[in-house]
Automatic annotation (TrEMBL):
Residues 1-19 form the signal peptide. Residues 293-302 have a biased composition (Basic and acidic residues). The keyword Signal applies. Residues 247-265, 277-288 have a biased composition (Low complexity). Pfam families: CBP_BcsN. It comes from Microbaculum marinum. The keyword Zinc does not apply. This is Cellulose biosynthesis protein BcsN. Keywords: Signal. InterPro entries: CBP_BcsN (IPR031482). Residues 247-313 are annotated as: Disordered.
């Protein structure tokens, strides 16, 4: 009996010593996987997934999902996801993540890391997508591109029953800058994110129970229109329009037209004053249609014309 107990103790010590002396696996080694293995993808029409870097920890899988980037400012458009649960990695207390809720201090540090030099403004509006509430900040880079940084923690709201398996959690960040997108278009990326991956462990379900369908769907008297979808107001003001320099316009020289002199009728008793040019056009004091005065009829051709003042009335 004593020998059996001693033998069991020796085996236990040997097993413990072998576990302690066993070289630790490099669980935090990062490897590149196929883009089709991305755990989270943007909505249809969003930036394409170009690469996925995956890191395996003892209690989580971290993925950096690189998205297509078209801006000149520093940084890469990406989705950063941490998936908590029994992912199959060997237990290592030094290589573990704690699924804490994001704090504003942690969010500001992350924005300084992923969006250097961009002044971000945290939105004061409540927003929620298909997986629950999320927060976001918007800012404009020096290149003129509009940037968004979103964060969300996906976890079931109801408490976990005793002795029930862990349900897991998903912690994600979205970083996108686009020179042509509006704030609503960038915000639509957070609304349309799709979790396509899963953990094949029993009980893993960070989404909770699916909500019941709207009882008004299909009922008469409850119209549903797609135009009811509304976004919140903008967080940052729109970019100022670019001033375009134009050459000063030269004012056109106005055309001066001289109206012909008005024709007047000579009153009886006033002499006719001939036109200095010798033509029959009317002068300022007479018309060619007027009859010559009797004093002019006595003058012969070639004699000077004497200006006779008009009689005083």
């Amino acid at each position: 009996m004593v020998k059996g107990v001693v033998l069991l103790l020796a085996l236990a010590v040997a097993s413990c010593s072998s576990r302690v002396n066993q070289p630790a696996l490099n669980t935090s080694a990062t490897r590149q996987v196929d883009p089709g293995q991305a755990f989270i993808v943007p909505p249809p029409g969003g930036p394409a997934v170009v690469a996925v870097l995956e890191t395996l920890y003892s209690n989580a899988v971290a993925q950096e999902i690189a998205l297509r980037t078209t801006t000149t400012n520093e940084g890469q458009n990406a989705i950063h996801a941490k998936v908590f649960g029994p992912v199959g990695g060997p237990y290592d207390p030094t290589e573990r993540f704690t699924p804490n809720l994001p704090t504003m201090n942690r969010i500001h540090n992350e924005m300084r890391e992923f969006l250097p030099g961009v002044r971000m403004q945290v939105s004061p509006y409540f927003a929620q997508n298909s997986y629950g509430p999320f927060g976001y900040a918007v800012g404009r880079a020096a290149s003129g591109a509009l940037c968004i940084y979103g964060w969300q923690k996906i976890t079931p709201n109801e408490p976990r029953p005793i002795l029930a398996p862990t349900r897991g959690a998903v912690d994600l960040r979205l970083r996108v800058c686009d020179p042509t997108a509006s704030e609503d278009e960038l915000l639509n990326l957070m609304y349309g994110l799709v979790v396509v991956g899963t953990v094949g462990a029993f009980g893993w379900n960070p989404f909770g129970k699916p909500p019941p369908a709207d009882p008004n769907v299909g009922r008469a008297g409850y119209p549903i229109s797609p135009s009811n979808w509304e976004y919140t107001r903008s967080v940052v003001p729109a970019a100022a329009p670019v001033a375009v320099e134009r050459a000063p316009s030269v004012p056109a020289t106005p055309r001066v037209t001289t109206a012909p002199p008005a024709e007047t009728t000579i009153k009886p008793g006033y002499p006719r004053i001939p036109d200095p040019s010798g033509s029959n056009r009317s002068s300022a004091y007479g018309s060619s249609t007027a009859k010559p005065a009797e004093a002019d009829s006595t003058k012969e051709e070639g004699e000077p014309i004497v200006l006779v003042p008009p009689p005083t009335e």
